[in-house]
C-alpha cells in the first residue's frame, strides 16, 4: 500500500471518527436541552395540578377533576393527555374520558405510585418518544386543639395522606425533529470540510512524495549495484538533509571495494564455524556452518551470551569461565567442547582474535572452530588398536610360558586324586588345586584366543540364523534370571562373511554381561538392520539392555584387556576385549552407548561375499 493511500485512509478514518463523535455529542446536547425544557414546563404544571386537584382527589370526583385537567391541557401545555390516578392506579379523571375508571397496573404506573416525589421517564410507544411526568397529591391537615392553642401550647404535628397521582404525557416529536435537523446540517458541514481537506491532502502529498520517490529510486539502483548515483536536493528541510546524506552514503559505497553481500557470501560458504562477539561477550553474528553444527536457528544465538556455546543455562558459571578465557585475547587451537541445542557435546579446536578499531581499542572478538569429533574418534580407535596389539603380544608370550607348567600342575593333581581314597586329608587341597588350575587353563585359553593373529575360517552366513543359535544358548539363564529376550530381526538380510562360532560367542558374551547388569524383569533386545554408508553397505547388530548402565568414566575403558568392574573372582576382564578382537578380525566395528537404564552395543559387519559364493535368494 502506497504512502498516499495510507495517509488518505488515515485522514478518512480520523475524519469519520471525529465527525461521528461531534455529531453524536451535538445531538445529545440538543436532545438533553430540549428534554430538560419540556421536563421543567411539565413538572411545573404537574406540581400545580397536584395542589389544585387536592379537593377533587379527596372527593374522588370526576366533575371537579376533569375541568381542571382539561383547562391545564388547553392552557398552552403541549400534552398528549393529563390523568388523575388514585393510590391503586385507577383513573379518577382523564382528558380522554374513555379512560375513566380503568385500572393501570403496568410497571411504569407502579413505579409512579411508589414514588413520594415528582419524577419523569422517557418512553417509546408506537415508534414515538414521549415523556411521562408524575406528581403525588397529598392531603395535609394540622391536628390541633383549640384548648391547646388558647392555652399557648405547641401546634400539633402536620399529618399527610396520599390521595393519588397526577400523570402527564408530553410528546417529544419536536425534540426528535430538532435533533434530526441539526444532525443533517452538521453532517453537510463536516462533509464539506472533509472534501476540502481531502483535496488539500492530495496536493500536499504529491509535493511531499517527489523527493521521497527520488530517494526510493536511488535506493533501488544502489541495491542493483549502481553505486555513486545522486538524487536531486529540492528543499532545505529535513527531506533535503536526507537527500544530502543519501548522496554522501552513495559516494562512500562507490569507494568501497568489498560489499556486505560479497563478505556475507564468503562467510556463508565457510565450512568451519565462525562466531563474532562483542566486547561484553554477546554473540553478534554466526555463519551457517555454526548453525548446522549446533542445531540452532540464527535468531536463537545472535544476542545471547557466548557461554551458550559451551554450557547449558544450568552450568552458565562454567560457560562463563570459557567465555572469560576467550575474551582475554587471542587463542590458538584451544581444545574445547561446544554444546549443541540437543545437549550433545562436540569437540572442537577453537581459535580467536580480538578486533580493534583505528585507535587500537577492542571492538569485539572473531572466533573460528574446527569440528574434531571424527578425528578424536579415529585417534581413539588407533590407540585402542595399538593397545590391543601390544597386549595381544604380551598375552601370547605369557600364555605360552605358563601353559606348560600349568599342564604339569593339573596333570599331577588329577593323577594324585585318582589314586587317593575318598575322605583322605589331602583330598580337599588337591581338589582345590585342580579347580584353580582348570580356571587358570581357561584364562590361558582366552589369552591365546585374544592374541591369535591367524585368519579364521569365514563363510557367507545368515546373521539372523546365527543369532537364533546363540540366543538358544542363553535362554536357560534368561529364564532363571527372569529376563525377557526380545528379537527384532530384519528379514532378507544380505549374507556376511564370518565365523559362526565366533559371532555366537560375541552374542553370548554380550548377553551374559547384560544379565549381570539387569535385575529381574529386565529386557534384552537383539536387533538387526541394514545400513547404507557410502560406499559400503553394513549389517548392524544391536544388543540393548535396560540395566544400570555404564558410568561415563568407565565407558571409554570397557574394551581394555583385564579391565573389569566386577568383584574379584567374578570376571577376568577379557570378555569385551575378546569381543572387540573378534569383531575386528571380521573387518567390523563395535561401539557402545550407555546411560542409566539403557546400554546399547552396536556391531557392524560389512556386506561382502567370498569368492565363488552367490547372493542370498
In short:
With 617 residues, the protein is α+β, with helices and mostly antiparallel strands.
Can you lay out the helices and strands and say which pair or pack?
Elements: H1 3-52, H2 54-59, H3 62-73, E1 81-86, E2 91-94, H4 107-114, E3 119-125, E4 128-142, H5 146-150, E5 158-171, H6 173-223, H7 238-255, H8 260-268, E6 274-277, E7 283-286, H9 288-294, H10 298-301, H11 316-327, E8 331-339, E9 345-356, E10 362-371, H12 373-419, H13 427-451, E11 459-461, H14 463-480, E12 484-489, E13 496-498, H15 500-517, E14 523-533, E15 536-545, H16 552-555, H17 575-585, E16 589-595, E17 598-606
Parallel strand pairs: 12-14
Antiparallel strand pairs: 1-2, 1-5, 3-4, 4-5, 6-7, 6-10, 8-9, 9-10, 11-13, 14-15, 15-17, 16-17
Query: Rg from C-alpha positions?
Result: 53 Å
Oligomer: single chain
Number of helices: 17
- Overall number of strands: 17
Low-confidence stretches: 143-150, 314-319, 610-617
> What is the residue-mean pLDDT, rounded to a whole number?
78
Strand content: 15-25%
The largest beta-sheet arranges its strands as 2-1-5-4-3
What is the 3D form? elongated
Distance N terminus to C terminus? 68 Å
Content-based structural category: alpha+beta
Largest sheet: 5 strands, antiparallel
Give the helix proportion (percent range): 40-55%
Amino acid at each position: 500500500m502506497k504512502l498516499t493511500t495510507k495517509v488518505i485512509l488515515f485522514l478518512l478514518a480520523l475524519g469519520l471518527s471525529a465527525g461521528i463523535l461531534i455529531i453524536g455529542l451535538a445531538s445529545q446536547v440538543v436532545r438533553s436541552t430540549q428534554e430538560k425544557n419540556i421536563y421543567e414546563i411539565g413538572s411545573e404544571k404537574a406540581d400545580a395540578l397536584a395542589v389544585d386537584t387536592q379537593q377533587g382527589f379527596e372527593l374522588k370526583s370526576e366533575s371537579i377533576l376533569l375541568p381542571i385537567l382539561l383547562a391545564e391541557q388547553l392552557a398552552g401545555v403541549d400534552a398528549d393527555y393529563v390523568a388523575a390516578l388514585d393510590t391503586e392506579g385507577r383513573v379518577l379523571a382523564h382528558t380522554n374520558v374513555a379512560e375513566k375508571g380503568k385500572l393501570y397496573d403496568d410497571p411504569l404506573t407502579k413505579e409512579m405510585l411508589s414514588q413520594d416525589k415528582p419524577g419523569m421517564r422517557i418512553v417509546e410507544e408506537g415508534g414515538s418518544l414521549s415523556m411521562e411526568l408524575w406528581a403525588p397529591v397529598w392531603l395535609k391537615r394540622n391536628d390541633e386543639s383549640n384548648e391547646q392553642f388558647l392555652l399557648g401550647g405547641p401546634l400539633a404535628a402536620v399529618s399527610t395522606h396520599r390521595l393519588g397521582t397526577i400523570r402527564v404525557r408530553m410528546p417529544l416529536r419536536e425534540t426528535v425533529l430538532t435533533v434530526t435537523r441539526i444532525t443533517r446540517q452538521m453532517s453537510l458541514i463536516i462533509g464539506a470540510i472533509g472534501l476540502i481537506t481531502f483535496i488539500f491532502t492530495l496536493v500536499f502529498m504529491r509535493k511531499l512524495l517527489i523527493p521521497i520517490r527520488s530517494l526510493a529510486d536511488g535506493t533501488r539502483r544502489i541495491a542493483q549495484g549502481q553505486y555513486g548515483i545522486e538524487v536531486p536536493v529540492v528543499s532545505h528541510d529535513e527531506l533535503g538533509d536526507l537527500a544530502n546524506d543519501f548522496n554522501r552514503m552513495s559516494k562512500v559505497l562507490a569507494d568501497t571495494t568489498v560489499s556486505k553481500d560479497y563478505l556475507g557470501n564468503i562467510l556463508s560458504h565457510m565450512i568451519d564455524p565462525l562466531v563474532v562477539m562483542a566486547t561484553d561477550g554477546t554473540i553478534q553474528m554466526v555463519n551457517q556452518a555454526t548453525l548446522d553444527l549446533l542445531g540452532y536457528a540464527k535468531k536463537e544465538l545472535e544476542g545471547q551470551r557466548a557461554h551458550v556455546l559451551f554450557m547449558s543455562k544450568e552450568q552458565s558459571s562454567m560457560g562463563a569461565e570459557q567465555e572469560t578465557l576467550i575474551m582475554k585475547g587471542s587463542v590458538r587451537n584451544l581444545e574445547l567442547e561446544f554444546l549443541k541445542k540437543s545437549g550433545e557435546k562436540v569437540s572442537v579446536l577453537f581459535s580467536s582474535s580480538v578486533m580493534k578499531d583505528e585507535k587500537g581499542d577492542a571492538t569485539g572478538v572473531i572466533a573460528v572452530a574446527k569440528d574434531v569429533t571424527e578425528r578424536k574418534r579415529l585417534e581413539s580407535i588407533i590407540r585402542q588398536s595399538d593397545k590391543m596389539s601390544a597386549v595381544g603380544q604380551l598375552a601370547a608370550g605369557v600364555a605360552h610360558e605358563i601353559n606348560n607348567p600349568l599342564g604339569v600342575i593339573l596333570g599331577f593333581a588329577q593323577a594324585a586324586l585318582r589314586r587317593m581314597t575318598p575322605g583322605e586329608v589331602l583330598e580337599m587341597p588337591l581338589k582345590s588345586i585342580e579347580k584353580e588350575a582348570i580356571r587358570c587353563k581357561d584364562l590361558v585359553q582366552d589369552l591365546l584366543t585374544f592374541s591369535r593373529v591367524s585368519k579364521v575360517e569365514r563363510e557367507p552366513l545368515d546373521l539372523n540364523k546365527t543369532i537364533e543359535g546363540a540366543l538358544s544358548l542363553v535362554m536357560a539363564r534368561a529364564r532363571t534370571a527372569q529376563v525377557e529376550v526380545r528379537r527384532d530381526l530384519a528379514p532378507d538380510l544380505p549374507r556376511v562373511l564370518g565365523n559362526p562360532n565366533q559371532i555366537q560367542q560375541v552374542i553370548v558374551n554380550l548377553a551374559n554381561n547384560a544379565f549381570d547388569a539387569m535385575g529381574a524383569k529386565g529386557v534384552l533386545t537383539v536387533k538387526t538392520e541394514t545400513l547404507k554408508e557410502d560406499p559400503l553397505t553394513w549389517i548392524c547388530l544391536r544388543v540393548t539392555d535396560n540395566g544400570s548402565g555404564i558410568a561415563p568414566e568407565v565407558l571409554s575403558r570397557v574394551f581394555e584387556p583385564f579391565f573389569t568392574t566386577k568383584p574379584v573372582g567374578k570376571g577376568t576382564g577379557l570378555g569385551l576385549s575378546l569381543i572387540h578382537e573378534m569383531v575386528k578380525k571380521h573387518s567390523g566395528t563395535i561401539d557402545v552407548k550407555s546411560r542409566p537404564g539403557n546400554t546399547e552395543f552396536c556391531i557392524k559387519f560389512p556386506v561382502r561375499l567370498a569368492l565363488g559364493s552367490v547372493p542370498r535368494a
